[in-house]
Amino acid sequence: MDELEKLKKLLHHWLEHNDGHAETYREWSEKALAHGNRELSEVLGRLYNETKKMRGLFEEAIKKAG
Description:
The protein has 66 residues and is mainly alpha-helical. The protein has one domain. Helices cover 91% and strands 0% of the residues. It has two helices and no strands. Helix 1 (3-34) packs antiparallel against helix 2 (38-65).
């Protein structure tokens, strides 16, 4: 497998891994809120949103990798 093929596989893996992290941040945001820590919940919510935005960059990279 050449380097570009390896990168393509890594990009798909990273995209899935990124989505998994986003969902974890969302879950912990809800837990923090349930425990009365609104400020922490808001930060974790922002982490979720920013991580979800990265999906578009991964998709763009996958397209450009061919």
